[in-house]
């Protein structure tokens, strides 16, 4: 059910003719209210796709009543013509739903530099409108898939009996994780009553510890969008802390599903930095390792190469003593005080899940960054995608 | 001849038993004077190898009389014991040459996290001392190779008849280029009379436009060292500008040789950023593209994927209008004003050399950054190296 589990939402997924294989490729999600509070975060890439340019204006007033998403084309670097396509799609959704286009978020994903066929999209909106239903979440989730092997969704329920409220979410792709797709799109719904400013704070607190900590190859998408909408249909108003906790759990669940489905990956790598001077520094150090092609290729080769971990840590500005770093791989402390410790041969890297722990001995902050290994399949996938 | 082409230098390369295949693995270069001016640059990695920790102290007074280099072990992350090995090697060189250990630069390259066998190194210094000769440059160049397929060297001669002076250089590996080696080591000699402060300025001006613009995989070595020594044996004092021009040419030649020999690479990619607001911003933009695994995998697949170029440019803080960027690949302008232009199918990416030109339309500064494609061979090489 995902995004249609919370009360007050309908959704649909249809085939608009963008994908040549006939699969679903256009999704529509409507918030029926009574509240229309929302919050969004977008890619930090300065070269943004047209749907992002449109949507970042839409969300500024904290009101979103519908999200329309298509796979099969990112509508990125397609110029004014492409922007007009995004605008036309939003207008069509608005016309069908009897709302304003300025309350319609548009998301696109697929190849960049190719125009999306406008008429297909407009016809697809008509079809999706006709198909909107309170159990359309699953179809919507499939319609946003590109090379995802499975749809990603989450449902959480909170509150005492009679006071229940819930969160639903769907996600596609993997931003930098499965970068052939070049985009991560996430829509989250809740039937709790949550004013837009609280939603915004909660969303930023949640993406900070979930999607922002996925880093497969350091490449930043042009289309990433995460939108949360609150319908208020449950009539329940959780405290900001309660809501934030639940939204974080939902986002972390979706992020881990993206990690698990990353194309071409043989390993899922969790890099945890402990005893950092600050959380930001812990993230900086974790990310430096997550972006080391050398370390990631070593993991692919089942080689617990802690020297490549230290070489990455050394590129950061975080507080630490270069001569006093400890590194564990799968809980085996192969490096103590920046010198060899336990025998690396005792580290078994065959299982899919790998943990790296780096002790900076500089404070008490901790953060975990997630990545994948660098594999032949990654190179193959990304060298063959658009040719 | 390389480093022994300039007058006033002797060199040798011997087998000290570090490489199991019996190849040369220890090199010694001596400056016979009459001047002993020098300058060096080292890796910016904070987790530096022991030879770098030693050598950066040695070079502070601008005097270096010998450089000893070994392949077969980086002596990195080997703790105080490893530092003592570096120190002992410098002392042994000093004893044999009748100079102070504080004038001996030590360089090591090979696997990190493994102790170098101290006695082999000391015995190797004895052998290298015995073999020092005015035509030992070629042996020295071979002794510093790790997975290099060919030695890299350069010789330049300058000056009017009777006033000639020359520069010689040798290089190994490729720092980030052929990262299995994890290190770029460069020794440059000249028989010109060049005071240490001029050498230092000239060296920084030269590495800035040569080695610093090589970026294969974004990974920063722990052992990179570039040392230049001036013997003054020609008796000729070039102007600082003359010397800097020649040193730049020598460094660019060596950098391009490193690029050409990068392991696992099918393509050499020159990324030139034009009309940037500053040279620093041009380099920032070029480096962002050089570090895009997505773009580099596309080049491996002979796919002129300019969308991935723009997506990388968008991650920088350089001045430009995201809606007005032009991109050429092999001189075909496939993107104008951030939209599709010439048909990418007309770009032939089969040749080894690839040029990418990015027009920022924000000023008049230009810079070129060099990289390679991301290939199956890269993944193989770096997943299999130490296991």
Automatic annotation (TrEMBL), chains A, B:
An annotated Gene Ontology molecular function: L-glutamate N-acetyltransferase activity
Localisation: Cytoplasm
Organism classification: Bacteria, Bacillati, Actinomycetota, Actinomycetes, Propionibacteriales
The EC number(s) this enzyme carries: 2.3.1.35, 2.3.1.1
Pathway: Amino-acid biosynthesis; L-arginine biosynthesis; L-ornithine and N-acetyl-L-glutamate from L-glutamate and N(2)-acetyl-L-ornithine (cyclic): step 1/1; Amino-acid biosynthesis; L-arginine biosynthesis; N(2)-acetyl-L-ornithine from L-glutamate: step 1/4
NCBIfam families linked to this entry: ArgJ, PRK05388.1
Sites annotated Involved in the stabilization of negative charge on the oxyanion by the formation of the oxyanion hole: 109-110
Keyword Cell wall biogenesis/degradation included in the entry's annotation: no
Site positions per UniProt: Cleavage: 182-183
Protein name: Arginine biosynthesis bifunctional protein ArgJ
HAMAP family: ArgJ (MF_01106)
């Amino acid at each position: 059910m995902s995004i249609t589990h919370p009360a007050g939402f309908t959704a649909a997924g249809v085939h608009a003719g963008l994908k040549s294989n006939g699969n679903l490729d256009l999704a529509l999600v409507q918030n029926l209210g009574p509240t229309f509070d929302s919050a969004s975060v977008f890619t930090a890439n300065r070269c943004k796709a047209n749907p992002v340019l449109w949507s970042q204006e839409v969300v500024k007033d904290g009101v979103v009543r519908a999200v329309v998403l298509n796979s099969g084309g990112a509508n990125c670097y397609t110029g004014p013509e492409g922007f007009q396509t995004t605008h036309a799609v939003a207008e069509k959704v608005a016309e069908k739903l009897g709302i304003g286009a300025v309350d319609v978020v548009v998301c696109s994903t697929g190849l960049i530099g190719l125009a999306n066929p406008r008429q297909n999209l407009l016809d697809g909106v008509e079809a999706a409108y006709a198909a909107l239903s309170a159990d359309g979440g699953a179809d919507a989730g499939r319609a946003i898939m590109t090379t995802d092997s499975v749809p990603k969704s989450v449902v959480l329920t909170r509150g005492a009996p009679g006071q229940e409220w819930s969160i639903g979410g769907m996600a596609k792709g993997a931003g930098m994780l499965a970068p052939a797709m070049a985009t991560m799109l996430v829509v989250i719904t809740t039937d709790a009553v949550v004013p837009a400013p609280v939603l915004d704070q909660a969303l930023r607190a949640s993406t900070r510890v979930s999607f922002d900590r996925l880093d497969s190859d350091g490449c930043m998408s042009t289309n990433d969008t995460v939108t949360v909408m609150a319908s208020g249909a449950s009539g329940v108003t959780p405290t900001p802390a309660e809501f934030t906790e639940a939204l974080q759990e939902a986002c972390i669940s979706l992020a881990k599903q993206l990690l698990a489905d990353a194309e071409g990956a043989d390993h899922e790598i969790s890099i945890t930095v402990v005893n950092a001077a600050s959380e930001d520094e812990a993230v900086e150090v974790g990310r430096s390792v997550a972006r080391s092609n050398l370390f990631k290729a070593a993991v692919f080769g089942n080689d617990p190469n802690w020297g490549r971990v230290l070489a990455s840590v050394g590129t950061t500005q975080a507080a630490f003593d270069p001569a006093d770093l400890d590194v564990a791989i799968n809980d085996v402390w192969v490096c103590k005080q920046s010198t060899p410790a336990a025998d690396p041969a005792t580290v078994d890297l065959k299982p899919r899940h790998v943990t790296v722990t780096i002790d900076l001995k500089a404070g008490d902050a901790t953060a975990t960054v997630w990545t994948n290994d660098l594999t032949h399949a990654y190179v193959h996938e990304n060298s063959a995608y658009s040719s």
